[in-house]
Write a structure and sequence with these properties.
Structural class: alpha/beta
Number of strands: 14
Strand order of the largest sheet: 5-9-8-6-7
Order of helices and strands: EHEEHEHHEHEEEEEHEHEHHHEE
Radius of gyration: 22 Å
Helix content: 25-40%
Largest sheet: 5 strands, mixed
């Protein structure tokens, strides 16, 4: 979330200094002077949205937004701002500087995407059909070049079913193995869904907490009402009241379509669903 300090920039810097960690997780911080003349982003201008927050403050109060990030003041495509606006994570943020530096030098960067990207291509950006030559990859799958900046849509839902008393470590091992086996990036997972009879399952709760996954539960009736072609199990129906937990909960939670059908082993089931993702080239406030 954004933090707005009203007062001197120096006071704000000293206040936040002990807590600053990384551009990946630091919040937006904007300083507004006490007369409301200036709104100055001082932390997380792009990924945290501080530049946008300063712009919002400017429109509300009449303050001048003081933007200092190089790509913004030179009107150059900002890959991290673009990723944030598309609801994506950046897997390797150290590559942001490399991409931005190339664009600031007037070089061309090539983008490879699993999805069509609507809108007008930004200046200095080209699409490529060859993943191996891309400097930026928009993907939920493993296999991008080591030199590429990997942008991951944060829109995947994992449906998980498990036997009673399963441990966090068992779920972690199974999840990691099956994601790798099927070539999916764990960073694409936003939430985990299951049946409501698992809402007190300590291993599942701990697994989700350790990853920062949102967690949602549905009743057997809600899961039974989900339309689709699912892997049916008479045993699961007998125990839970619905023929499938992982696939149905993944689809219901995501509001999208099934991406990976039921994976089973060691008392755990896993399925993946993905919501409708339609990226555009929009990267700055209009």
């Amino acid at each position: 979330e954004g933090l707005v300090f009203v007062g001197a920039a120096g006071i704000a810097v000293r206040a936040i200094a002990p807590y600053v960690r990384s551009k990946v997780c630091d919040p937006a911080v904007v300083v507004v002077d006490e007369l409301g003349k200036y709104a100055i982003p001082i932390l997380s201008g792009h990924l945290g949205g501080a530049n946008d927050l300063a712009g919002r403050i400017s429109r509300i109060s009449g303050a001048q937004a003081v933007i200092t990030t190089a790509t913004d003041i030179r009107q150059v495509f900002s890959v991290d701002e673009w990723a944030r606006r598309q609801g994506c994570r950046i897997l390797n943020p150290s590559r942001i500087k490399t991409v931005s530096a190339a664009l600031l030098e007037g070089k061309i960067i090539r983008v490879w995407s699993e999805w069509p990207i609507t809108g007008e291509l930004p200046e200095g950006v080209r699409l490529t059909g060859k993943r191996e030559e891309a400097q930026v990859c928009l993907t939920i799958h493993e296999g991008s070049p080591d030199t590429a900046l990997v942008v991951v849509p944060w829109r995947m839902t994992a449906g998980i079913g498990c036997r009673k008393g399963i441990s966090e470590e068992q779920i972690e091992a199974f999840f990691t193995a099956r994601m790798r086996q099927n070539g999916f990036l764990p960073d694409a997972v936003r939430q985990v869904c299951s049946i409501d009879r698992k809402k007190d399952e300590e291993g599942l709760l701990a697994f989700c907490k350790s990853h920062g996954f949102a967690l949602d539960f549905f009743s057997a009736e809600e899961l039974s009402a989900v339309k689709g072609n699912f892997t049916s199990s008479p045993y699961v129906r007998e125990v839970t009241g619905v023929d499938n937990v992982c696939e149905r909960s993944a689809v219901l939670g995501s509001g999208g379509t099934l991406l990976l059908k039921k994976q089973r082993g060691n008392g755990i089931t896993l399925a993946l669903a993905f919501d409708g993702f339609s990226p555009s080239w929009r990267w700055r406030m209009e």
